[in-house]
Task: structure prediction
Amino acid sequence: MRDPSGFMREEYQTLVEKGFDWKLRVLEGPSAPRCRVDGKDVIMLCSNNYLNLSNHPRLRQAAKEAIDTHGVGSGSVRPIAGNMDLHLKVEKKLASFKRTESSLIYQTGFAANAGLVPQLAGKGDVIISDELNHGSIIDGVRLTKSDRMIFPHRDMGELEKVLKEADKKYKRILVVTDGVFSMDGDIQHMDKIQDLANEVGAMTFVDDAHGEGVIGPDGRGIGAHFGIAGKIDVEMGTFSKAFGVVGGLIAGSQDLVNFALNKSRTWLLSGSHPPQVAAAQFAAIDVLETEPEHVNNLWDNTKYFKKELDSMGFDTGQSETPITPVMVGESHKAKALSERTFELGVFALPIVFPMVARDKARIRTMMNAGLTKDDLNDALAAFEKAGKELDII
Ligand SMILES: *Cc1c(COP(=O)(O)O)cnc(C)c1O
Result:
């Protein structure tokens, strides 16, 4: 007799034996710089809520008001009956924030990549990817019949060669890349990619999930950071990170938006955001436009935290952004450091193989605009104590 679900138990058991299973922590209350996790008061260093907007009074208020005026659900997918005035308001504001002609909101960033990438290239075309691109891009690429080419991480010389080769063989060429890479916090050479793409008439697509609200003037993202806002064919991003809410987005030309909303199956076949989400998204952009202190605090905290970690003797890698890896090396040591710092009141998760190379295990800390100097000093003291105990520094 077949055991129809036996593989679930077996595969799970294998993950547990290898230590690759997720042990879920429980957040009791809001995701805030100081929060409660598994019954313990801790300093949060692993949330993507970079600007602490998820707790901003204007976002909370906007969400509550939208429930009163519009209810808690949109009732449908957008192409049928779920296209609310609140959704359109966000898209208009987002396009103005990103300095693009138009924009479109998706249910999530994952849905934007998985829904749009496969529509942009097909048989006879090629998608060219950075080797370290996010899984949602990779899944989007897998849904196409297009050929694929990979270039080594941020290697513009190699990209140029790949583009020249692609230029001879293919009709459409799409270059797709993360803007800020989430494991190391380094920034893609988007200005150079745009120039190289222009030479052969290739399309460019950047996933700016960790750049929006973080880099560029007022946190406008990677286009603004390099002074090429509106020139990249597709700027994709998310409301689930620095914007503090949830939802995916693309910004670009009206042609792009007309095409994307008629073609992306993840957009067409999935219910739209509830009113309170759309209202909070709108408020998040408005806060970024009117309260520059959040982005400034984020960078001040980042500089201070990195400088202090470095002076203690930690290796913080190549990051150029608030993503601050604390490099450890071996997986078990990275896990031990995370457990010990948690006991000392700091919540930061280890990143180990297979997410990064076997000898590149680390704790990935993410800075937050809402952390005070005292919070940072407490977190640093915990890292110093645990780092010494474990012979890392
Ligand atoms: C988080 C992330 C996504 C997914 O965004 P969601 O809106 O959370 O689905 C996509 N790409 C990158 C690079 C990310 O870091």
User: Anything to note?
Assistant: The chain has a mean pLDDT of 96.
